[in-house]
Structure formats: C-alpha cells, structure tokens
Design brief:
Blueprint lengths: L20 E2 L7 E2 L4 H5 L19 E4 L4 E4 L2 E2 H7 L2 H10 L5 H13 L5 H7 L8 H15 L9 H27 L12 H10 L10 H14 L6 H10 L5 H12 L7 H12 L5 H9 L20 H17 L4 H15 L1 H5 L7 H10 L7 H21 L25
Antiparallel strand pairs: 1-2, 3-4, 4-5
The structure holds carboxymethyl coenzyme *A (CMC).
C-alpha cells in the first residue's frame, strides 16, 4: 500500500494519454475514465462515489449548491404547487407531461393493476405482528417477482411498461397492508373512485365498520409529499435498483433491493429518526445539549434531518414540507410542540459555526415526520410512505437503464488484503 501522485493520467492535451471530458446539459462535466484501466493499468478509487457519475441520466437534476431540483427539467416547487403525483410519475417515466388522453389511459392502467393477488395477502401472515412495515415491504415486493416472472420479458417495451405500472399501482396497497396487518385491522382494497393519494389514505385509516371520509386537505398534502419524494437522481436506493437491474434481474426484485437500501437512517429512514430525536429532545431548553452532541467528534450522534451529500444549501423539498406541516396542523386545529422544537433547532443550527462551515441544512426528512404524524401516520410508516413515492423514480431509472448497453455494473476494488500465501494447518 502507498500513495504517489500521478499527474499525467488526465491531461487536457489531446494526446494518447488524454481522457475525454463529457458535458451534460446541466451540472459538472465528467472525465470519461472507461479506458483508464486498459490504457494505463490504473483504477479510479472513489469510495462513497463522491466524484463518480455512475451513469448518464435524463430524469432528474440536482444542483446542491443552489438548492435546485428538477424533474425532467421542471422545478420541484412548480410540480408541488401545480401537479399531481400520478402526473409526475408519468413525467418521470416518459420524459414529458401526459396529454389529457395519455393521463386518462395512465390513470386507468394504474386503477386496473392496483389490486394485489389474493395469494400475496396470505404472505403477510408469515410476518410477526410487530414487524417493521419496511421489513414487510422488502419481503412482499420481492415476493411479487414470483407472480410476474415467467410471464414477463424485460426485452419487450410493453412488458416493461406494464411492470412499472404494476409497481406504482400496487405499492399503496402493499404499504397500507403492512400497517393494517401490524394493528390487526382487516386489509382494505383500493377503490377507483379515489385518486392515488386518497386511495392510500382510505386503505391506511378506513375500517369496514364505518364509512371513511378522506379529508381533501390531507390527501393533497400527501400527494405533495409523494411528488417531493418521487425521485432524487442517483441516491443510494436508486443506484441499488440500477445495480440490481444491470444483471437483468426481475424488476420486482430490483425494487425490493431499492426498498432495503432506502430503509437505513442515513437515507429514507431519517424521517423516522428525526421524530424520535425531537421526542427525545422534549423541550426547547434541551436543544443546545443536542447541538453539542452533534458537534462532538467522539460521539457518533448526528443531527437527524440535517446535511446531505449533494445539497450544500437549503433542500428545496424541506421548505415545501415545512409549509405543508404548518398548513395541515392549522387545518386540523392541532398544535405540535415538536414543530416548535424543530424550528428552533433549525434556527440555532443554522447560526452555529459547525453547521455553517460544513454547509449542513435541513433536508427533506427534517419536517416530513411532523407532517406525516399530523396526518395520523404512525412513525414506523414514514419510510414506507417514502418508498411508495420513490417507486415512481425507481421504475423510471429501471426503464432508462433497460435502454443502455454498457452491460452489468461491476465495480472494481483496491485490494488491501494478504498477498499470496500457502496453506499450512493452524496449530
Ligand atoms: N449532524 C452532525 N454532523 C454532520 C451531519 C449531521 N447531521 N451531517 C454531516 N455532518 C458532518 C460530518 O460529521 C462531517 O464532519 P467532519 O468534516 O468534521 O468530519 C461533515 O459534516 C461532512 O459529513 P459527511 O459524512 O462527509 O457527509 P455525507 O455526504 O457523507 O453524508 C448524510 C450525508 C445525509 C448521510 C449526513 O449528512 C447525515 O448523516 N445526516 C443525518 C441523516 C439524514 O438526515 N439523512 C437523510 C438524508 S436526505 C434524504 C435521503 O437521502 O434519503
């Protein structure tokens, strides 16, 4: 092992040693190092992928320094204000907003495929009653690959579209069933008189012994949450889906892999972790202790909902969510002391040198837990809602990847283990 500096590998001169620089339509250019190993016998080392563009993509663009997020070119704020999740899902999948005719067809397809096979429901009974909904979702979505495998040819564009529609269509019932199972309530079915978000709410909170009226303010707030979480370029879970898909794996299995990756507290699991943290803080007076803990390098504690690999400015999604949280609480006539703690925590952190220097701002998860809790979602469903939304992004990336021809994704490594040695039995 050792380090030495190599200057000649990447040169701007167009000689044999130079590597091409690829320009995108927005964002930093990328050095194309595909021939680095064959020409120079060197690998690129980038654990954590801080400087690696793993693919070309035309779905989502993030400018983390300016706090910009675009889906197919449209700013997230405009989509959250004017669009609906299903329209956004179509946009992510197809690249353009649907015409009224395309939208109708898409709605009908989602409505046709939103039921779960009855045998899938029996699968739920194998889980412990207190299983985390994300554990159930990983299992159930993976299990769907057994239902749609032989009948599906991923080389056929129609089959691919159908798989994507099935996933978006079925995910609300899959997520709601993982909750109703845990509380011992009968599973509810989708009803196509409802829109996508309302359907999910009635499956989550309805019961067979009473009529459930979906509150339109809550349905709209949920739809906005789904739009905001629908895609975020090559994050850990999306990259996981792409990596799994590069081997030609069944799409349901690929999305199950994405759900597993999303679950961790550094990724989608942060919304649950934020709420637990705010509850532990308990009162505004305790905030400074938590800030000190977050800054203490000998303590592994991090301020949950703060910081982002790409955003070094406000995450534009957190601003929309904070506004929605206030709106929903006011609509319901509720007060949540956790909102006050969160806002005060944000204010203090944003003035603290530690957070300023490292450009740590509230991310999408900082206020989403407060909003979801106000809407009645239990804490362990927060990440499941994220997974439901992100399915639109995952399937769009899965579709995009099918059109690529670079073969299986197979990273290399810098081997730092033992050199060759020969077997002798240990005494
Ligand atoms: N609290 C305290 N310090 C932090 C935090 C935090 N939340 N986030 C980063 N830092 C510090 C970190 O200790 C490091 O300090 P130093 O330079 O002194 O070693 C510096 O900031 C850079 O951190 P990093 O670990 O290199 O940053 P990263 O890009 O690898 O991590 C992150 C990004 C989101 C994993 C991290 O900020 C974090 O753990 N945040 C809390 C968890 C969270 O909110 N996750 C949700 C992310 S957004 C939704 C999603 O992607 O699903």
């Amino acid at each position: 092992m050792g380090t030495k500096n190599v200057n000649a590998i990447i040169s701007e001169e167009q000689n044999d040693n130079s590597l091409p620089v690829l320009d995108g339509t927005l964002g930093p250019s990328a050095v194309d190092i595909q021939t680095l190993y064959s020409r120079n016998g060197l690998l690129a080392y980038d654990p954590g992928f801080r400087s690696t563009a793993s693919c070309k993509s035309s779905i989502t663009f993030v400018d983390g320094d300016k706090g910009i997020l675009l889906y197919r070119g449209y700013p997230i704020e405009e989509l959250a204000e004017h669009s609906e999740f299903i329209e956004v899902a179509y946009l992510l999948m197809h690249g353009e907003l649907p015409s009224p005719g395309q939208r109708k067809q898409f709605d009908e397809a989602i409505g046709y495929y939103n039921l779960l096979h009855e045998q899938v429901l029996s699968f739920y009974r194998g889980f412990r009653r207190d299983a985390h909904p994300m554990a159930i979702m990983v299992g159930v979505v993976g299990a769907l690959s057994a239902f749609y495998h032989d009948v599906m040819n991923i080389r056929d564009a129609n089959d691919r579209e159908l798989a994507a529609i099935r996933l978006i269509g079925k995910m609300p019932m899959i997520a709601a069933a993982s909750y109703t199972y845990s509380v011992g309530r009968p599973q509810r079915y989708p009803n196509n008189k409802y829109d996508y978000a309302s359907n999910f709410l009635q499956m989550m909170f309805g019961a067979p012994n009473r009529e459930h009226i979906v509150d339109p303010v809550l349905a709209r707030a949920l739809d906005i949450i789904l739009i905001l979480h629908a895609d975020h370029e090559q994050n850990a879970s999306t990259s996981t889906v792409r990596l799994a898909a590069s081997s030609g794996a069944n799409p349901f299995a690929c999305i199950a892999a994405g759900i597993a990756s999303l679950w961790g507290p550094a990724h989608g699991g942060a919304n649950e972790a934020v709420l637990k943290m705010l509850m532990e803080i308990g009162t505004v007076e305790n905030i400074s202790k938590v800030i000190e803990r977050a800054k203490n390098k000998s303590d592994s504690f991090r301020l949950m909902g703060f910081g982002h690999r790409i955003y070094k400015n406000f995450d534009p999604r957190s601003l929309v969510i904070q506004k929605q949280a206030k709106k929903v609480l006011a609509h319901l006539g509720k007060e949540d002391p956790l909102l006050e703690i969160a806002m005060r925590l944000e204010e203090i952190a944003l003035k603290d040198e530690y957070f300023i220097e490292r450009k740590l701002y509230p991310n999408v998860d900082f206020y989403s837990g407060i909003l979801l809790r106000a809407m009645g979602f239990p804490m362990n469903m927060f990440t499941a809602v994220f997974a439901l939304a992100r399915t639109a992004g995952w399937v769009s990336h899965w579709l995009e990847l099918q059109g690529e021809s670079h073969g299986i994704d197979r990273p290399r490594q810098l081997y730092v283990g033992k050199t060759l040695r020969h077997y002798t039995a240990r005494k």
